[in-house]
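REQUEST ID: PR-0412
SUBMITTED BY: lab tech R.K.
PRIORITY: routine
TASK: structure prediction, single protein chain
INPUT:
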Amino acid sequence: MEPTSATALVAAEQLAARNVIRPEHVVVVVATSPGLMDPAAARAHLPDIPLLQPDRKALQRTLRNVYNVDIS
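STATUS: complete
OUTPUT:
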């Protein structure tokens, strides 16, 4: 993991400790690694990034259909 990405993880931990983030919340922390800093190299191993409407149902549908991930 890129050392500066640890900041996002620490922030999430601190927010959880203060009950700003609660167990029932879904939280996504984006952390990069040196390999992801080269988009062309990463893109060669990943599907195209889908464009979707900014709503939860579209996100759920895309995650399920494209990435086989269910967040219902």
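NOTES: Residues 39-72 form one domain.
REVIEWED BY: pending
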